[in-house]
Amino acid sequence: MSKMQTLLNRLLTKTSNDLSQAQQELKWLTIHVLQQTKNPILNKLKTSMILTNEIIKNLNNNEKIILNKYVSERVEKSKPLQYILGTQPFCDLEIITKPPVLIPRWETEEWTDRLIALLKPLFLTTTNLASQKFPFKIIDICTGSGCIALSLSNGLPQNSCYINGVDISNDALSLANLNLSEMRSSKKLHNQVKFFHLDIMKSIDKQICEFMSKSNGYDLVVSNPPYISHDEYLTLDKDVKLWEDKLALVADENGTIFYSKIAYLAAKYLLKKNSHFPNARKNKIPELVMEIGGSHQVSKIVEELKKYNFKSVDIWKDGANKDRCIVANLHN
Amino acid sequence: MKSRLFPLQKSLSYLILSHISIPLRFKHSNRLPVTSHFISKCFSSVSITQESLFKDSLLNSKVRERLEGLIIRHSALSNELDNQSSKIIDPDVLASKSKELSDLSSIIVPYQEMRKVQCELIEIDKMINESSDDEDFKKLMLEEYQEIIEKLKHLEQSVVSALIPKDSADQGNAVLEIRAGSGGDEAALFAADILNMYERYAFLRKWKFERLLIVEESAIGAIKEATTLISGKGVFGNMRYESGVHRVQRVPVTDSAGRVHTSTVTVAILPQPTEADVNIRENDLRIDYYRASGKGGQHVNKTSSAVRITHNPTGCVVAIQDERSQPKNKAKALQILRARLYDMERNKLHQERSEKRRQQVGTGDRSEKIRTYNFAQNRVTDHRINLTLHELDNVLNGESLQTIFDGLKVYYQSEALQNELH
Asked: Which one of B193, B275, B301, B325 would you mutate to disrupt binding with A, by most A Cβ within 10 Å of its Cβ?
């Protein structure tokens, strides 16, 4: 059995015996090894996208050891591929991933893309001068790696908006700031982004007031808060359970406790009463966008939103046809 | 090698002379265009009986008839529009007539230029014949003669290109699909060679070559299927005649007995449509994600980002898994799907049109064997135009492909021209 065959067989246990998926993972891992050793064969593999026996056979000893280590981590330790590779593509960015900060999911990428497409026309009709004086302000609650906040910054027109991200976890904040500086140096940061430490569940109103004193309120609140129930958590794959921060995944009250708090804060403190973007209402741009765990949470969350006078509540489905976001407006 | 390129070049001098008989009909016309005096001057020096020798010319009698008609129309139109006291008041009519005039000009201008150059050729021919004793002078004249023939060749091409209907897709990008056909691993290995050939060619043309989908056959670098996007100016127009079955004859590396095998690879070139060209209804699509059951979102961290899109009305399926981002895979799959649907639509139209004319038009049949790559004889033969190049390496590294493409272009253009006239 060839070396490549052996590696593939081991990876098959992680891909539910899907050979083409195992081939993909092995290819990505090999590319990652070659990147570190700066082996010139890397370019060939990257452009041809074909991993051959030949390439695996011709790895030097050091490279073989690293590749073996990666496969072992993946197979025996259930380490997520994104933590091994160190990045995950998200919208037009390569988000750096580090344990235990939540790895960006494709569903989140999908709705962030949708949101960017929805927001863009807003800045085409507004003159540059106006948006410089009054940038569109966005807050991302439970920002984690910063993927949503940073993608908005990258995807929206230059200097059209201003984005803040908050999180309870210091791991998350330092990773978000790392991603931020990475983006700045690669000139992908088109709008200002700042990250702050904030524990929204424990914070009392005084702390929120203090936080808000730095800002005049926001035009849009986005969030991908933890939404997995304690029971569900027990059933999750090792890849998730052993590696990703429980703080970013699990929430009380069947995974819905964050939504009530976010709705309360958004209605009372965060959302601006007088927007400088009257077109936002006309274009049906929501003021609140929150990712959810599925249809089972919808009625509870809608109830909470109504309590704080949110209207035009709508559900965005993801590509797998599951209820993925709840969006709403506070003002008419 | 190049002399086999197309019959046109073989008898170039005949061809050029053939044009000179064009003015025949104009002689007695009282609506002669500006260049009429050239024409009558030329006419006297050409014997009409030669015409029978000129079958190879693209501009045969039917084409010439058409061109005559166009010249009359052109001068009528330009008179009508030039006239200050023009009776055309309706701006729409004016616009459409101006458009027609400018379209006609793109044909008439090179055509009239061509006729002018033909007259120069006659003059030179005369001088060569009359100065039989002065060898130096004769040599000089012969050189000039050759130059003028080259010039005429280009002008004829311009006239032909202007005459046949334009395909807007020619200027744009193309999706290239390669599939290993009969011959197992060897066919898949050759598919990889063909893919490489087009990639090198695109590189030489400074076009962007993007691999959208690669399905590997085995770990030896063979591929079952590849889909790529080639972007640049005029990609489709240059490569459109590559669709068909490519045949390889060689001893495969996998055959230890050293026997020659014959294997095939199927190539398809599809024009890349814009979103406006193909309107895909969301409702017609079924999109499947790998392991999409379960709750998704934060619950799972799946590394597979495979996406499979089925277009229900046509049954067309595209699956992509190369990107680590699922939305990117989906976007790629949609791009390929759009190109395939656009191609189907174009083929349908094409077929309807040919049926209307009750005749078979060459291109489009993907099961047609179009080219053979023979390693033992170091040759590549394109069967449609009987062109053989004895430089297999240069073809496979993309350098000699343009020679083949140019030959095919002339061949199909002349065919399209004939079809236009029926």
From this structure: B301
Please indicate whether, in this complex, the C-beta atoms of A109 and B325 are within 8 angstroms of each other. Answer: yes
Q: Which CATH fold would you assign to the domain B169-274+365-421?
A: Alpha-Beta Plaits (3.30.70)
Q: Which residues of B touch A237 (CB under 8 A)?
A: 300-301
Q: Does residue A69 sit within a domain?
A: yes
Contact state of B298 with A103 under an 8 Å Cβ cutoff: no
Domain ranges in chain B are 2-163, 169-274+365-421, 282-354
Nearest to A103 among B216, B291, B301 (CB): B301
Among A262, A324, A312, A325, CA closest to A282: A312
Residue recorded with tokens 């400074």: B206
Q: CA-CA distance, A176 to A96, in Å (whole number)? A: 9
pLDDT at B15 (0 to 100) = 39
Please tell me the distance in Å from B343's CA to the nearest CA on chain A: 26
Same domain, yes or no: A93 and A58 = no
Residues of A in contact with B323 (CB under 8 A): 89
- Total domains present in chain A: 2
- Counting as low any pLDDT under 50, the low residues of chain B are 1-56, 358-364
Q: Which residues contact B233 (CB under 8 A, 6 or more apart)?
A: B171
C-alpha–C-alpha distance, residues B327 and B14, integer Å: 60
- pLDDT digit string, tens, across residues B42-87: 333 333 333 332 334 566 677 778 888 888 888 888 888 877 656 6
Quick check: A79 pLDDT over 50? Answer: yes
- The domain in which residue A204 lies consists of 88-329
In this predicted model, what pLDDT tens digit does every residue of A284-307 receive, in sequence order? 899 999 999 999 999 999 999 999
Q: CATH for B282-354? A: 3.30.160.20
pTM, 2 dp: 0.76
Q: Per-residue DSSP letters for A210-233?
A: HHHTTSS-BSEEEE----B-HHHH
DSSP at A250: B
- A83 occurs within a structural domain: no
Chain B neighbors of A21, CB-CB under 8 A: 290, 303-304, 306, 321
